[in-house]
Design a protein that fits this description.
The protein is mostly helical. The chain is built from 12 helices and no strands. 79% of the residues lie in helices and 0% in strands. It is globular.
Length: 272
């Protein structure tokens, strides 16, 4: 078997693997979308694998009658606040880790990663008590703070990697010409790192969008979309569950589709 044949076989194997992954991930999305708009009668028809007649009734019921639209807006507001809070706290920390040498830097990074393995549900009771005392219970800001706490370690580590990939010499050149370190950061480093920071924001948004525990425990009337759907779908018919899956997945897919180019840019910066 010559080298050209081996290359063609590897190429076929690679594309076959990619096709299997795409099908594996795509079929649940396609099925959820079809049955989200399918008629209930066709869902329970044993002779139909996929529906052929569609309606907006189920999705409209979830969005406008059962409160899904308000919950969706709450999710967007909470995710946006989580991005702002985690970046306000995470950017200085990531920049410091990337630019300065100090004792215990590696220990701090490992410690931040270790926080991600801590079981969040065991904090439910003390977290609720704390929120009641701070008057943050059942508020969007309270949920955003909880989501920011979960996203902050990743934001710090990602931004540290991004800033480590940008040129420190350009900052120093800016300071030589009269800029302060903060001005040099704003005018030189930050614009270079913006694509990667947008990717970090994407991770924070998706993490907040999918988080359900904090929103379920800390809110009653301002629930995010996952928390509301978790409550509604416990006793709902199956076709409502498919509609809920579509409503949950579609906005996040749109966001990721728009932000994917920044994700690619992030890896390009970080690997330089």
């Amino acid at each position: 078997m010559n080298e050209k044949t081996m290359y063609e076989l590897r190429k076929i194997g690679f594309y076959t693997f990619i096709f299997i992954i795409v099908v594996w991930m795509g079929i649940p999305l396609i099925v959820s979308t079809l049955y989200a708009f399918g008629l209930p009668d066709e869902y329970y028809n044993p002779h139909r694998i996929i529906p052929f007649h569609f309606t907006l009734k189920t999705v409209k019921m979830l969005l406008f009658t059962l409160g899904g639209w308000d919950a969706l807006k709450n999710s967007v507001i909470v995710a946006t606040l989580a991005i702002i809070i985690s970046f306000i706290l995470g950017l200085p920390a990531g920049y410091s880790i990337a630019r300065f040498i100090f004792p215990g830097k590696d220990t701090i990074k490992l410690g931040m990663l270790a926080l991600k393995i801590f079981p969040v549900p065991i904090m439910a009771v003390p977290l609720v008590m704390l929120y009641i005392r701070l008057h943050l219970i059942d508020t969007r800001l309270g949920v955003a703070l909880a989501h920011s706490a979960g996203a902050l370690p990743l934001v710090v580590l990602i931004t540290a990697s991004i800033f480590a990939g940008t040129s420190a010499e350009l900052e120093e050149a800016g300071m030589v010409f009269g800029l302060t370190r903060f001005q040099s950061f704003l005018k030189i480093t930050l614009p270079l790192a913006l694509p990667g920071l947008a990717a970090a924001a994407m991770f924070t948004f998706v993490g907040s969008w999918n988080e359900v525990f904090a929103a379920s425990v800390l809110t009653f009337s301002h629930r995010t979309l996952p928390a509301l759907m978790l409550t509604l779908m416990q006793t709902a018919p199956d076709y409502y569950k498919f509609a809920a899956a579509f409503i949950m997945a579609f906005p996040a897919m749109i966001y990721v589709a728009v932000a994917r180019k920044y994700l690619i840019s992030m890896w390009g910066i970080a690997l330089k």
